[in-house]
Specification:
Blueprint: H1 3-13, H2 31-37, H3 43-56, H4 67-80, H5 84-107, H6 125-130, H7 146-155, H8 158-177, H9 184-200, H10 205-218
Length: 231
């Protein structure tokens, strides 16, 4: 067994099991202790994990970063990732953010993004742009959750919308985690699931709400819309 495999086995074996945010009553390990365990990663993997978190966790995105800047960062990250699993979960997260961004823009009566602008990310940006006035952007069959998300978004039921979005994100990560146990993918998926649980339980609820208010103040439509995952 090489040192890399031993590190992953030791690390993952030291971490408590995670349960869905809606079941968990508390996180079973503090972020401080988790970070201590993550020191088992070699420096290259640790840096890559930090880059992934910096883009996936909207609280960490710089307030002055534009949508085009986020897309550029994503392109660079995706080019570095060898894992199809990680590329998939990151792409799915930003496709979700792209849909939410489109719903926000449309609710403010903004026109569809101009052709060839880097306003969103993923496989459906052009389809959304071309179907701007359709209720579900022509994606109802592709994104089975979109009907409920749109209804909650348009109704202004923010808490239930956040719950629904959390469930979508958790399902994506949890499904992917079943394929990995003792490798770098497993570590990343654990950390991302941990972050969802911690956020839902409100361990940083005040900071998170302040952060979201700051994002709103900067203008989520043209700048920073991909940074937010709530309405």
């Amino acid at each position: 067994m090489d040192d890399g495999n031993y590190r992953y086995i030791t690390l993952m074996a030291s971490l408590p099991a995670l349960v869905a945010p809606f079941i968990a009553r508390q996180v079973r390990i503090s972020r401080l202790r988790l970070d201590t365990r993550l020191r088992l990663l070699d420096e290259d993997d640790a840096q890559l994990l930090r880059r992934i978190e910096a883009l996936m966790e909207w609280e960490q995105i710089h307030l002055d970063m534009t949508d085009a800047g986020i897309v550029t960062e994503l392109d660079g990250l995706m080019a570095e990732l060898d894992s199809e699993t990680l590329r998939t979960v990151i792409r799915e997260r930003f496709e979700l953010r792209t849909v939410l961004s489109a719903l926000r823009r449309r609710r403010r009566n903004e026109p569809a993004p101009a052709p060839r602008t880097r306003w969103g990310y993923g496989r459906y940006t052009e389809q959304i742009r071309r179907n701007w006035t359709r209720p579900h952007f022509g994606l109802r069959r592709t994104m089975h959750w979109l009907g409920e998300v749109r209804e909650l978004h348009d109704s202004g039921d923010t808490l239930e919308l956040e719950r629904n979005i959390m469930r979508i994100k958790w399902d994506s990560l949890d499904h992917a985690s079943h394929e990995h146990e003792f490798n770098f993918d497993a570590v990343v998926l654990y950390v991302l699931r941990y972050n969802l649980i911690a956020r839902w339980l409100g361990l940083s609820s005040t900071a998170a709400r302040t952060r979201f208010d700051d994002l709103v103040a900067t203008g989520l439509g043209g700048h920073g819309s991909l940074a937010a995952e709530v309405a």
